[in-house]
Amino acid sequence: MAVALAAMDPSLRGGLAAPWSTRTPLDATPVKHCEILGDKFGLLVQGVLFAVVMGTLALKWWLEKPRRQLKVFILDSSKQIVGAGAIHVMNMLCAIIFAGADQATVADECAWYWVNIMVDTTFGVLVCYWLLKCTEKVLGYDTGHYGKKAQTGIDWAQSPDYWKWSQQIMVWCLIVMAMKTIVVAVLFVGAPFWIWLSVRATHWIRNPQMRLLFVMVFTPTCMNMFQFCVTDSFLKYQKKDSEV
Q: What is the rounded average pLDDT for all residues in the chain?
């Protein structure tokens, strides 16, 4: 493993004993470190990211056919909004902790945030899908269905049971936290590789503010569009054959 990583990047040679100890810069020119919450610009970027998330969800609903009732869509989307918010906070914490674990490391906060979101929106989506299906079987509920299982004569889409919705929100938050725990374990175990990948993917941008925009606006915009569309497809209620 060590030989393979050293072959990918000479800067990793001699730095594989500790999980994240790549101490040699990529070249002779030092790269300024990028902080995700360093100043007012970082906070502004957080606001832009939130607007992008909301816009992506609204566009997804507007284009879908048949379109869900607005009330049901808001209830479904609230899961993703809460989940995305929780993941975003956890990603920032992971980025700050990982980057601060070794002050001499090449990977800064932006690099670690980038690799976190890339893994979350690919491997993490698969983990969330699997965990969701497990909870449906174990707890006996249908995701996205906010009514009684028995036929009551009441259109649940018009009069949803908000208690059932709140229960599903809580379950989804637990799923997201479990997924993040698994992702952190994957990042920790393979830290030398993830450092190499994150640095190569982000440090070609020398300006710290432009790098911050790349990892917290451009990358999430592209990856979250994929993540939200896929996640929404299995979070919303799928009608049974008898209901069609």
A: 77
Answer for the pair 107, 198: CB distance below 8 angstroms, yes or no.
yes
Q: Can you tell me the distance from the alpha carbon of 208 to that of 35, in angstroms, rounded to the nearest whole number?
A: 8
Tokens 């989804």 belong to which residue?
Answer: 172
Look up residue 217 and give its DSSP letter.
I
Q: Which pLDDT value is given to residue 58?
A: 82
pLDDT at 176 over 80: yes
Q: What gap in Å lies between CA 30 and CA 32, rounded to an integer?
A: 7
Paired tokens of 41: 């610009």
Token reading at 224:
């979250």
CA 118, CA 46: separation in Å to the nearest integer?
18
CA distance 106 to 21: 8
pLDDT tens digits for range 197-226: 999 999 888 888 888 888 877 887 788 778
Residues 113, 119 contacting (CB under 8 angstroms): no
Please determine, for residue 242, whether its predicted confidence score (pLDDT) is greater than 70. Answer: no
Instruction: Give the 3-state DSSP-derived string for 115-174, with helices as H, strands as E and coil as C.
Output: HHHHHHCCHHHHHHHHHHHHHHHHHCCCCCCCCCCCCCCCCCCCCCCHHHHHHHHHHHHH
The residue behind tokens 């975003």 is 88
55-70: average pLDDT: 80
Structure tokens belonging to residue 127: 């983990």
CA separation, residue 123 to residues 127, 129, 199 (Å): 6, 10, 20
Strand, coil or helix: 9: coil
Distance CA 157, CA 122 (A): 31
The Cα 20–Cα 12 span in angstroms is 10
Mean pLDDT of the region 8-35:
48
